[in-house]
Amino acid sequence: MKAGGTERRKYPRYKPEPGTVILCTREEAAGSQGANLVQRVIDVSALGVCFVSTTPLTEGISVSLDIMLPGAKVKTSTRGKVRWSQFLESKGREAHVCGIEFDTLVDGLGPRAGSDSALLDIFLTLRVAVAQLRLYPKESPQVLKVVTDNYHSIHSFLENSNTLTLSKTPRGLLVNGRPLPDRGTVSD
User: Fold this and answer.
1) What is the pTM of this model?
2) What is the signed CA dihedral for 174, 147, 183, 68, rounded to 10 degrees?
């Protein structure tokens, strides 16, 4: 999927920070806005959002979005289009899931340098790569896959941060010269 020549994959998707509020409404011809279409957010990126919708949405329709980030004093407003929509049924439960592509990048939804989710992805893929290297020869397909996954997670981090330095010190692990957060998934 492209928007203005930019691929969405360049902007990694992740779970939104707790406290993030996303309101999505249909753009009506008369300019009036309807009810919020977001039932539950699945993931976000700087270029889009995937969510369980309250009603089926048609591919290609235009929507308006108001995004409130934790700690922000003002909301971010943007427009978007429904790029895909799917009805899912599993174990007696039904859901309408859709992907919205924003007209403009929403920087606050992109991963921040040193964000928990980006670092967590690096640490998890690195741990799996080391485990596979202990089990298989370095030329094996299993090792190639996990090392490639680790490369991609590091590459995504470096698109938003100029450096990545991991240092073991008596105070613990430092990432870019800073200690890990006291709380959260990365510190665990």
Assistant:
1) 0.55
2) 110
